[in-house]
Batch of 2 targets.
Target 1
Amino acid sequence: MKKILYIATVLVGLTGCQFLEKHQQRDTVAEVAGQRLTASELQQITGKASTPEDSARYAEAYIRQWAEEILVYEKAKDQADAEVERLVEDYRRSLYVHAYEQRLVQQRMNKTIEDSVVNNYYESHRDQFILGESLLKGILLIVPNGAPKLDKLKKQLAEPDDENIEHIEKYAYQYATGYELFTRKWMPATHIVLRLPLETNNLVQQLKKSNLIEVQDSLSTYLLQVTDKCLPGEVMPIEYARPEIEEILLAQRQSVFLREQRNNLYRDAVKFKKLKIYATD
């Protein structure tokens, strides 16, 4: 194959902007092996330059890289053997099949997982959902050392009903430098520890003694009221395990769905005589 590489030598004497303007009308900036680089494509690269000189350098470097990649590919393609061609064809087929099956899944597969299905899987596979770290629900408040009415605040934290939570939030708005309410959502203890001057192991040990953890550093007092907890070695709560279970169930459903689609294609091929099987000795 005759390879024609057009790279204007005028790059040496022109700025990048001048070069692009010179070729804007015909749009083609460079051509090699039947492929063309347009001025608009090159502008996306040179447009990032801060000076005309930089723009010219960017243009020259990009054109060279663009041309070299095409030339190397053409050379490699000319010398490819049967094994390489087979691998290329296998990869092409796998891409087609994957894209087709993903469209089928998106358009036709039911992705709703009923609560009863999740519950049944959870009960049948509880040993798969053993916690490796603590999960907590609760309230975290970070206030400056010496903040007022801490005793009253601790009593409200100990009984986090709707009324007390309202008072806690008002207090947090007025005094707290940090506040997190997670009484309805399980959080890994490692997430909470990131906000405390306390190691995870120490937190777990203190939780065995009290649901209120109070620690201080030189600036702040940290109050963590734990309203519920699951410790390492226990079975994780179903609401925490739900995303993982749904992912497992969807993967299983997708496998069955795609197998059914392949079976349908095979049956249709046999029914409409698209498939011919010849006897072998």
Note: Residues 54 and 258 are 53 Å apart (CA to CA).
Target 2
Amino acid sequence: MDLRAREGADRVLLVCVGLLVLIALLVLESALRGVGSGAGFSAHLIRVGLALVVGVVAYHMGHRRLARLSPALFLVALGLSAIATTSGALRAGTRRWLEVGTLTVQPGELAKISLVLLLAHLVARSGHEPLSRRATVGWIAAAGALVLAVAAQPDLGSAAILVGIAVGMGFFSGLSISRQWMLAGTGFAALAVPLIWVFGLRDYQRLRVLSFLNPESDPLGAGYQTLQASIAVGSGGLFGSGWLLGSQTGLQFLPAPHTDFIFAVLAEEFGFVGVVVVLALYLILGLRLLQIAVEAAENKDPAGALLVGGFFLMLHLQGLYNIAMVAGIVPIKGFPLPFMSYGGNSLLIAAAAIGLAASVSRRNFLT
């Protein structure tokens, strides 16, 4: 498969993202029947339009210009995350959202892209491969502060994604980690797990983990989401029940079908074939992002390479967890599926990431 870019905007990125968004519109039309009205679908269409504008602006700004703004963006994300900890809107026991009139901001989503941009900026400023010691210390301190601020909301899912981005981009940047430090980190993590379980998790979070291990123990309570998602996925069969004909979705048995469990709606109504198509689109998108990163590294653009590598981690770690959650492989966590779930914050951030990745691709082509 030839994933190389042609002159102009990267067609592979545009086609993959465009098809994911179009498929999402079909699935959301069904998912919103029980949880919203036509106005909800119209609102999502407006968000898709805004996402297109954001992606185009990011594409024309270019990653180098935006990377210079990354320290300011990072401070904004850190500040909003700290404010949300005490003043955010309380939903399902967490304060992940800031509400300003009709506008809702989720600092955890902004934190992800700001972290990616910051490391790319540090690499550009450092001019060293691997990353200089001073830049490494600054990166670890910045990542740690952001992770703690998001985890305090508490939004442990987004905090875990931030850790994954930080670790992955650290290796991408050539961060040198000795065997002793790796062993020490592993030992610390092993000791931290029981402490986090006892002191770091709230009762509902521990209940989620226990219900994941045995959802049948509380089928109408903590295990309800896992069981209903499994029923929806299993009932889809090869070709699905048909668009707008899913019983789990139409009868409102499936919780959050338009956000966290939109993949279950896809599986129920479009079956195994629909699932394979969507997974193939995510796979091609990921391969193209990695190829752009490699091309940027070959063209002596380490900041661009690291930026696109970070976007790959940001989008695909979250997407992989969402799909694994619907499949019952990991505990339930409030992760939107990139480009498909209902809502504006995740869609706008993902659009900005793709726009910047396309700008790196264009620079690779022109070099």
Note: The chain has one domain: 8-366.
